[in-house]
Write a structure and sequence with these properties.
This protein is mainly α and about 70 residues long. The chain has four helices and no strands. The longest helix is centred in the middle third of the chain and has 9 residues.
Length: about 70
């Protein structure tokens, strides 16, 4: 039997841990654009990927409203 469940994307994992891309980028000391490109696979950075995987869980203090 073939499983139809998909593994969560890197961005989904980051959000599930309570981080926004902007907040994680600030915490990690990289630009928001660079972090986004690494998370979506447009750039490769093993070091940054390891840092993202090691981020602690965090409680969201605010949610950004969509425009």
């Amino acid at each position: 039997m073939i499983s139809t469940t998909q593994e969560p994307t890197a961005i989904q994992r980051l959000l599930a841990m309570g981080w926004t891309i902007s907040d994680a980028a600030l915490f990690l000391g990289v630009s928001r654009q660079h972090l986004y490109m690494v998370l979506t696979g447009r750039r490769v950075s093993k070091r940054l990927t390891a840092k993202v995987d090691a981020l602690p869980y965090r409680r969201l203090t605010r949610m950004r409203r969509s425009k």
